[in-house]
Amino acid sequence: MIRIISILVGAFFSLALLWSVGKGAVSYVTEPPKETVEHAFHLAPKEVEFESDGAFGKFDNQQLQRGFKVYKEVCSACHALKLVAFRDLKAIGYNDDEVKAIAKGFQVPAYNKNTGEVVTKEGVAADHFPPVLYAGQGTPPDLSLIAKARHEGPEYVYSLLTGYQEQPAELLKKFPDAKTPEGLHYNPYFANLNLAMPQPLTADDQVTYTDGTKATVDQMSKDVAAFLIWTAEPKLDKRKQTGWAVLGFLLFATVLAYMAYRNVWAEKKGH
Amino acid sequence: MRRRDFINIAAVSAAGVGGVITLLPLISQMAPSADVLAESSTEIDISAIQPGQAIKAVFRKQPVFVRNLTPKEISEAEAVDVSSLRDPQTLKERTKAGKENWLITMGVCTHLGCVPLGAGEGEVKGEFGGYFCPCHGSVYDTAARIRKGPAPKNLQVPEYAFTTDTVVKIG
Amino acid sequence: MSFPWANEYKPSHPLMQWMDEKLPLPRFVYNAVGAGYPVPRNLNYAWNFGVLAGFCLALQIVTGVILAMHYAANTGVAFDSVEHIMRDVNWGWMLRYAHANGASAFFVVVYVHIFRGFFYGSYKAPREMIWLLGVVIFLLMMATAFMGYVLPWGQMSFWGAQVITGLFSAIPLVGDPLHTWLLGGFAPDNAALNRFFSLHFLLPFVIAGVVILHIWALHIPGSSNPTGVEVKQESDTVPFHPYYTAKDGFGLGVFLIGYCALLFFFPNALGHPDNYIPANPMQTPAHIVPEWYFWPFYAILRAFTQDFLFIPAKLMGVLAMFSAILVWFFLPWLDRSPVRSGHFRPTFRKFYYALIVDALVLGYCGGSPAEEPFVMISQIAAIYYFAHFLIILPIVSAIERPDPLPFSITEAVLGSDETAPAAA
């Protein structure tokens, strides 16, 4: 009895699905889905390597400091970094006094206990990077986690910064309605191809590097992407170090466990 | 000991060592986190505190009493025979040289951690004119030394320094 | 019940004798997972996964209780409190990654455990109750995992909560009020986040309770084994300790190597980037998918794209998705073959492998965007899924000619068994 019921139920689900397959197939043929402009012209991020890549990769503090400089002098005009505290910058090689000086350069929100007014004060090491007021077009995202909040985040940041270009003529020929709207900028690495952010890094030496590295647009883009890997995952180095120690120990313990297992079973025939 | 016994014991020991090491981060996570440790200093503007007045500031999420002693309170504190005290200390030892009128102590009773009265406007100062803890009746004098009641120690003086004449940095 | 040849607990130390009289907990453990539990001697590595699942549950409870010490269930601060754990709490990054990837590891282990049951007929009499409790555990795990994923209050958390609770609005008549009641509002917000946190904390302990029942039920008939032939004699079994404790110890080591490699080197590989964006009720991510362990069921949900008879497509999808798991409850009565193990069921075996491929295809489609060809592939795969359990298994078990079974476990292991009757 239960088998008859089950076969009937199975037939019911199968028929419902076949109905969906059939109607789907018909509509696929009668109204084939149109290719979208994003589908045709969006590009996956460029291949680019970072010092912190791979199981043995480590942050390069020099690069992170250059990247921080790019963030501070260019990105921070519109993008906040609210999950990062100034004290965290010690991890990328700044000493206490440098951190204090950096913090002092930012006005952070505070409130006056006596009057209840919301005011700003000079930052101290314990403060986080302040929110950024932005009144222009678009909504600049907070950059603290951007390297983890996008597929292939670091490569995406680098590709976006170096990917601004004229809208290809081919695109307009194929999709005449897809002209980049006024005030937006064409970038094939952005999900819908047009973004509000104008090209932020436009010329070599836009940021002055003090460590002798040539500040090309490509280099600055890579450095700030590396810096954003750090802001998104500040414990990356410690994580990998711990990981190797743990795996080493586990390998040793597992070999021992295997030998003990073979020992225990040694007297059993047929195993 | 046979070789196979040795391996079995080694395997169980390795598991035990691994288990104990795993406990370390589980214990360490309950210690103060980086953001809590980072806040461990506080700057206080003392310019508005008149003689005889006190304010409560916050240091490590605990109250700090900053008190501007009057000459009378200073002489009262200095008149006490130190050897008769439960926790013998002079006012000089509890203040900075040249700034004896500034008594800066934690506002945490050394008995069981209540906040003593006496720093706020109009609060009871207790029979020795300093602080009075209402929880269990500890009485502190004008140098915030324990004089009566169950508390074992004087109110703690935190580490601090005058960064200018009107600003104190605690911690 | 236990086999008559099981070792008996005999405490030698007076303190243990005293304990045994007052509270025989050591005796209980001895008989449950110690030398007092005779287990078939021929278990293969597929049988390691029960113990591993228990380990994963313990791991999730320990790391979860710790994370709850630092997490704050409020939509205003939940996201930041998770980042606080990642950045400021001592070892917080490790504990959080251990918990997030621990959920994935738990599901990997449990899926292997379930598919082992499918192949070796572990659900068959007299072990139906073990199987039913196992399905209950799986359902509770799914609920727990879903609610846990909501807690960081990222974009995927929010939209996952929106979509999954939206399933209940498909129910005729009571759907919409039920949906509002589940959320405590019209969209996921503080009320929903707080109750999800509360239940996410509670349910693992309920799971632990059902696990105890699951193991209790297991000890009535004893463990099954790869031949599917019941234990007949002492030479068919070995005591659980030290034989299987040693084997499980080794298995645990191998499991931990894989798990730690994931945790320390690819901690975000199984997550979704959008969940590092704080929840935004005004904007849905372009491509929303649940965690990987829900993908096969998600594919079945999405496979129903057309109204069927008088049933709307939405309701049909929800019905089918729940049925895809509920059908497991009936498995002991759908597969009536007297032979348990797939080793001796040539026809069943082919369909079993097809089911594995089918589940992987469904999973792949469930994780892909809802566009062709994935929709049509998932529809065909879903047909096979239901046909497998509801049509193929009942028919195959009735018409299949199984291969000859060994006389006993001893014979299967050693090639001969002196207690076996002479070959006819």
Automatic annotation (TrEMBL), chain A:
Write one Gene Ontology MF term: electron transfer activity
Q: Which cofactor does it need?
A: heme c
List the source organism: Novosphingobium flavum
What the entry lists under PANTHER family is as follows: CYTOCHROME C1, CYTOCHROME C1, HEME PROTEIN, MITOCHONDRIAL
Q: How is the cofactor bound?
A: Binds 1 heme c group covalently per subunit.
Would you tell me the protein name for this molecule? Cytochrome c1
Membrane-spanning intervals of the chain: 243-261
Annotated GO CC locations: membrane
Organism domain of life? Bacteria
Chain residues that bind heme c: 75, 78-79, 197
Q: Where is the Cytochrome c domain?
A: 62-232
Give UniProt keywords alphabetically. Answer: Heme, Iron, Membrane, Metal-binding, Transmembrane, Transmembrane helix
Query: Per its UniProt record, what InterPro entries does this chain match?
Result: Cyt_c-like_dom (IPR009056), Cyt_c-like_dom_sf (IPR036909), Cyt_c1 (IPR002326)
Primary localisation category: membrane
State where the protein is found: Membrane
From TrEMBL, chain C:
GO CC annotations on file: respiratory chain complex III
- Residues covered by the Cytochrome b/b6 C-terminal region profile domain: 230-407
Keyword line: Electron transport, Heme, Iron, Membrane, Metal-binding, Respiratory chain, Transmembrane, Transmembrane helix, Transport
Domain of life assignment: Bacteria
Q: Where does a ubiquinone bind?
A: 219
**GO BP annotation list:** respiratory electron transport chain
The coenzyme or cofactor needed here is:
heme b; heme
In what way does this protein cross or attach to the membrane? Multi-pass membrane protein
Record-listed heme b b566 binding positions:
113, 214
PROSITE patterns attached to this UniProt entry:
CYTB_CTER (PS51003), CYTB_NTER (PS51002)
Pfam families, sorted? Cytochrom_B_C (PF00032), Cytochrome_B (PF00033)
The record lists heme b b562 as bound by: 99, 200
Please report the stretch or stretches of sequence annotated as the Cytochrome b/b6 N-terminal region profile domain: 15-227
Looking up InterPro entries in the UniProt record yields:
Cyt_b/b6_C, Cyt_b/b6_C_sf, Cyt_b/b6_N, Cytb/b6-like_sf, Cytochrome_b, Cytochrome_b_C_euk/bac, Cytochrome_b_N_euk/bac, Di-haem_cyt_TM
Grouped into one coarse class, the protein's main location is membrane
Record text on cofactor binding: Binds 2 heme groups non-covalently.
Instruction: List where the protein spans the membrane.
Output: 49-73, 93-118, 130-151, 157-175, 196-217, 249-266, 308-331, 351-370, 382-399
Give compartment(s): Membrane
- Please name the GO terms that the record assigns under molecular function: metal ion binding; oxidoreductase activity; quinol-cytochrome-c reductase activity
Task: State its role.
Answer: Component of the ubiquinol-cytochrome c reductase complex (complex III or cytochrome b-c1 complex), which is a respiratory chain that generates an electrochemical potential coupled to ATP synthesis.
- Family to which the UniProt record says this protein belongs: Belongs to the cytochrome b family.
| Assembly notes | The main subunits of complex b-c1 are: cytochrome b, cytochrome c1 and the Rieske protein.
Question: Can you name this protein?
Answer: Cytochrome b
